[in-house]
Automatic annotation (TrEMBL):
Organism of this sequence: Denticeps clupeoides (denticle herring)
Keyword match Lipoprotein: no
Gene Ontology cellular component annotations, sorted alphabetically: cytoplasm; guanyl-nucleotide exchange factor complex; plasma membrane
Positions of the ELMO domain: 333-512
Lineage, uppermost ranks: Eukaryota, Metazoa, Chordata, Craniata, Vertebrata
Protein name stated in the entry: ELMO domain-containing protein
Alphabetical list of SUPFAM superfamilies matching this protein: ARM repeat, PH domain-like
UniProt xrefs under Gene3D superfamilies: 6.10.250.810, Leucine-rich Repeat Variant (1.25.10.10), Pleckstrin-homology domain (PH domain)/Phosphotyrosine-binding domain (PTB) (2.30.29.30), SH3 Domains (2.30.30.40)
Gene (UniProt): ELMO1
UniProt-annotated location(s): Cytoplasm; Membrane
């Protein structure tokens, strides 16, 4: 007979004694259970003790989390959070440097637990740590020359404990003094600083900026982009990640209103959002990131990829305001931009002192505006009243004219000599291209993107060539297809994008369309459709078996929280008979499969009620930054079992997410609906259809693949083309 659901069998440790096997009744108060455990070992004053997980987390067992205890769990009897907090509060004030260092190390570890953190904060522990940073470190700095490692460790553990305590969200960030902010900023601004101290300092600055507008103002007075950029030029990817996170935070909090700005000033405080973007460009941030991060021999980790994504989005979304701004035909400054386009194209001055009558000048302007390709020849400003693309189109045109002047003049003059039916109107084309790029690159939405002006210049060149073959009514469709196909290849640079566009001429687009149309027509006949319907269940069963086999191999999942710290891992795999999920925590990422017997926990498949994904997952509803991380949200899924119990997952990538959600749905007898299943179905079905439609009469297909031939005795037949 199985034990009652409220009874949990665990092992409990106590230093210097043999562990005890014990049955915990979850209906009993936790204090009664602790008293019973203490009495078993003759430990007095049970009120001063608590139970703790004996794993890498060392989290305390409380009334709130006691239901997380599973059969087979190992617990530890230890001092209560209040006693431990009081003890550490006293130890970190020790006059002995060694004792203080050990106390801070223990505090940094214990502070991860919210129960302990609450007790330590109640003792005004945060104030004590900030005072140690503000003034206490001055005393250590005097000793730095003779005991530099000790100084770095002291400060590192102090800041680590501070970060862990603040990450629980128990107290507000607005409570910190300017002296504390200056001290943290000084660690970031120093050219040579202990790596761990620099990491924690960057993390603290990021949290300050994100959590308080008032602290943003104070941090911005102390930190400059110029002082952050050197940290990107090192080889430590964690430091680079934290640095970009701080830049993103400052970017997010930068005021949008216009202010006077001195380009020679490095202060962030006086920079509105657009000026801050200008600073980043002036400091060649993208070039530094490309050289030291993206082209680094080290692979980019998930957190770095996310921070780069955020930086791209923030930079690109600056274009939204211009995209949604109509041109004011009466605004002289805006009209001067159009005059500048005319001046560059025709090498004329556009001031009002030109000789000739007003009518003659108007006629001359109208003629030139027509050559420039504007729809409204009399008042081209009207062309830019459509939103989108609004003023962004005019910005792009001016950028093209100034930075690619030869190409700009050539295009305008070529079209001046063409017949109307062959002309490629620069103005109209630029407006339509800008609008198209805004749609394709989703300006204003959270998407990965590149600079619009540079792509407009590239796209306009290919647009102009395509125009020689087709009329305006069709050319935009062709150019859109060229751009979409080029972006599908995921170019890493504008040069790759340009190369891809060069291979997608109008003739090539026609060939691709014709080939795709023929394939589509071939597979639309009734006999072919009937064959597809017959084959489809076989292919789906094949995909199902592949998914279940992958679940049997298992996957290592990373435990992610809103706090940045060393990665924690856990492993989950399906039993070979497809009846049980085995899972358990790991100390580090495994090399290869993890055996079933090393995974402590089990979940019968028969107990699984449902699989939920995304924002419906319990761990995505919890308070914290995970809710805001769209990439993590798209990789989250949970298994519901028993009465509102969940096993929560965050897949390492999209492929593993699809494999596991498909496999779990297959176990429950539900449809596999992931995008990978659709892709696999299309690929395998297409291959199987083509194989069955081959003319194989009198051709015997072998059961086994042919053997691999032996290597030749020499390679004299190889010709070196180089």
């Amino acid at each position: 007979m199985p034990p009652p659901a409220d009874i949990v069998k665990v092992a409990i440790e106590w230093p210097g004694a043999f562990p005890k096997l014990m049955e915990i009744d979850q209906k009993k108060p936790l204090s009664a259970i602790i008293k019973e455990v203490c009495e078993g070992w003759s430990v007095p004053n049970h009120d001063n003790y608590a139970l703790q997980n004996a794993d890498a987390t060392n989290f305390y067992i409380t009334e709130k989390n006691r239901n997380d205890i599973k059969n087979g769990s190992i617990l530890r009897l230890t001092k209560s959070p209040a006693s431990t907090a009081q003890e550490l509060h006293e130890r970190i004030q020790s006059s002995s440097m060694d004792a203080k260092l050990e106390a801070l190390k223990d505090l940094a570890t214990s502070s991860r637990d919210i129960t302990f953190a609450q007790e330590f904060i109640n003792l005004d522990g945060i104030t004590l740590l900030t005072q140690m940073v503000e003034s206490g470190t001055e005393r250590y700095q005097k000793l730095q020359k003779i005991m530099k490692p000790c100084f770095g460790d002291l400060l590192s553990f102090t800041l680590t404990a501070f970060v862990e305590l603040m990450d629980h969200g128990i107290i507000s960030w607005d409570t910190f003094s300017v002296a504390f902010i200056k001290k943290i900023a000084s660690y970031v601004n120093k050219s040579a600083m202990d790596t761990a101290v620099l990491q924690r300092s960057l993390a603290i600055l990021e949290s300050m900026v994100l959590n308080s507008q008032d602290l943003y103002q104070k941090v911005a007075q102390e930190i400059t982009i110029g002082q952050l950029i050197p940290h990107l030029q090192g080889s430590d990817q964690d430091i680079q990640t934290y640095t970009i996170a701080v830049i993103n935070a400052l970017f997010l909090k930068a005021p949008e209103e216009k202010r006077q700005f001195d380009e020679n000033s490095a202060s962030i405080l006086d920079c509105p959002l657009t000026e801050m973007a200008h600073i980043l460009a002036q400091k060649q941030l993208r070039s530094i990131i490309l050289t030291n991060v993206i082209r680094s021999p080290k692979p980019i980790n998930e957190e770095m990829a996310h921070q780069l994504y955020v930086l791209q989005v923030l930079t690109f979304n600056l274009l939204e305001d211009r995209m949604m701004t109509k041109m004011d035909p009466q605004d002289q400054a805006q009209r001067d931009i159009i005059f500048e386009l005319r001046r560059i194209a025709f090498d004329v001055e556009c001031d009002s002192n030109n000789s000739g009558s007003i009518e003659k000048r108007k006629s001359m302007y109208t003629r030139d505006y027509k050559k420039l390709g504007f729809i409204n020849h009399v008042n081209p400003a009207v062309d830019f009243t459509q939103i989108p693309p609004g003023m962004l189109a005019l910005d792009n045109m001016l950028y093209f004219a100034r930075h690619h002047q030869d190409a700009y003049i050539r295009i305008v003059l070529e079209n001046s000599s063409r017949e109307d039916k062959h002309e490629c109107p620069f103005g109209r084309s630029s407006i339509e291209l800008t609008k198209m790029l805004c749609e394709i690159l989703k300006v204003g939405e959270l998407r990965k993107c590149q600079a619009s002006s540079s792509r407009l210049c590239l796209c306009y060149g290919f647009y102009s060539r395509s125009y020689r073959w087709v009329r305006f009514s069709r050319v935009m469709q062709v150019v859109r297809e060229q751009i979409m196909r080029a972006l599908t290849a995921k170019p890493n640079s504008l040069d790759q994008f340009k190369s891809r566009l060069q291979n997608l001429s109008y003739t090539e687009i026609l060939k691709l369309r014709q080939s795709e149309r023929m394939n589509q027509e071939d597979f639309q006949s009734r006999p072919i459709l009937e064959l597809r319907e017959k084959i489809q269940p076989e292919i789906m069963e094949l995909i199902k078996q592949q998914r279940l086999n992958r679940l049997c191999e298992g996957t290592c999942f990373r435990k992610i929280s809103s706090r940045r710290r060393q990665d924690k891992f856990w492993y989950c795999r399906l039993s070979p008979n497809h009846k049980v999920l085995h899972y358990g925590d790991l100390e580090e990422s495994p090399q290869g499969e993890v055996p079933h017997d090393s995974l402590q926990d089990k979940l019968p498949v028969a107990d699984i009620k449902a699989v939920v994904t995304g924002k419906d997952c319990p761990h995505m509803k919890e308070k914290g930054a995970l809710k805001q991380n769209k990439e993590v949200l798209e990789l989250a899924f949970s298994v519901l079992y028993e009465s509102d119990e969940y096993l929560n997952f965050i897949a390492p990538d999209k492929h593993e997410y699809c494999v596991w959600t498909d496999g779990l749905n297959a176990l429950l007898g539900k449809e596999m609906t992931s995008e990978f299943t659709k892709s696999d179905m299309d690929t395998l079905l297409s291959m199987e259809m083509k194989l069955r439609l081959l003319d194989l009469e009198n051709i015997q297909i072998p059961e086994a693949p042919p053997p691999i031939p032996k290597e030749p005795s020499n390679y004299d037949f190889v010709y070196d083309c180089n």
